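question for whoever is on the cluster today: can someone run the full assembly for these? two chains, 468 residues total. i dont have access anymore since they changed the login thing
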Amino acid sequence: MDVHSLPEKEIVAIILYTSLFLMILSVVLIVFFYFSRKKIIQKELEKKDLVLQYQKEQLHAIIFTQEEERKRIAQDLHDDISSKLNIVSLNSHLLTAPNLTEAETAEITENIINLTTKALDNSRKIAHNLLPPVFEKFGLNAGIEELCEEFETSKSVKTHYKNEIDFDEKDIDRHLHVFRILQELMNNSLRHGKATEVWISFTEKDGVNNCNYEDNGIGFDSANAENQKGLGMKNIDSRISFLEGTIKITSEIDNGIAVNFTF
Amino acid sequence: MSDFLIYSGYLILLINLIFYSFSFFRKKEVNVFFLGYLAFSCVMQYSMEIMYHLHTNNLFLSNIFIIGQLILLGLFYNSLFTLKSQKSFVLISIGLALLILGLQFMMDWSQFLRFNLFAIALTSLLIVVYALIHFYNMLTESKTYYYASIGVVFYLLASTVLYFIGNLTHNLSNEFKFLSWQLNAFLIIIYYFFILYEWKKSFSK
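^ ran it for u. tokens below:
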């Protein structure tokens, strides 16, 4: 039997069906690609928006902390130095007064000397707070050691510091970020975590510097994203991105906090 | 050769059914409509084979199969979709297709006993459209039934054309009569392998 015996109608139907099927199919496929492209582009735009939003937030955080820092410095200057210098100036004026007895003069001079010493002391402290001279002169290791000491003596926090890295002095700009991060973390542990002990250690693995920080404070719920959006945390984040490192923060309520970052 | 292809297709389908039902009853992860589709295909395939050996006309089973396939796969994708508009699109299109096919069979009952080109085209297209909508949904979300959907699109597109020429092959010489069916059996094996791979990827753990 050959094909010709098939009714013509049937063949036409088959051809019609096949071509119609393929036509509808191509239309469906084109529509599919059109919508897929649209969806992907939209998703990409959303991603870009998110990045922009994040950058904006970081910028806000930077400006805000700058202003806070300015406020703090202004307050320190005003409270600790200006006020004292004011009294010094008053006392000096007193000295010029006529008919002063010897004892009075001596008292006033002593006052002036006391106040200027205090003012000097305070100005040194302010400068030290802004940038610790030990850090600047002797590098990160000494800076952290001093930071720990300061916390031990003035804030009754027990610190355990261990360093396995020999820091290169050329990287001092990067190390300042590390120093600031640790400073922020320690301040947070003390202020929010009510910690009494902190552990800091530097290790090196495959050429990547690692810093481990732990405390025994009250911690927070790290699953809750709200806890990761504080200004201090944002600051740490932007510093980490400066260092092109990674950071991992784990914490549980009543179980302290563990931070691990690379730089 | 063709027997080997056909029977290995049956075997893989049976393996698929066993694996998927195993996962279904153990962990309840498998979509119930998909399992239903596998079981339905299994029953249809084996009954077609039996009827072939009994020398009765089994073509009406193919009509039942493509309609059941539309309903089960349609419901399967319907249950995967989350958007209300997509869900209602699937249900409405299945309903319309069944209505149209019902009318056609009522007008010409003999259509039921032969290859019904219209029914094949309609059901295949609808299922492919559902699968494409599913692909579209998966663009930005996690992949579910990804490989099975690839198999569905691949097999339905390829086999539909083979079914179209199904009525033509009656009149060919015995030498070529079964060529398209061997090809179809081969496509079925690939299709079932996709489903098996899906099981391995998604449910074997």
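summary bc i know u wont read the tokens: The longest helix of chain B spans residues 2-27. Chain B touches chain A through 22 residues (CB under 8 Å).
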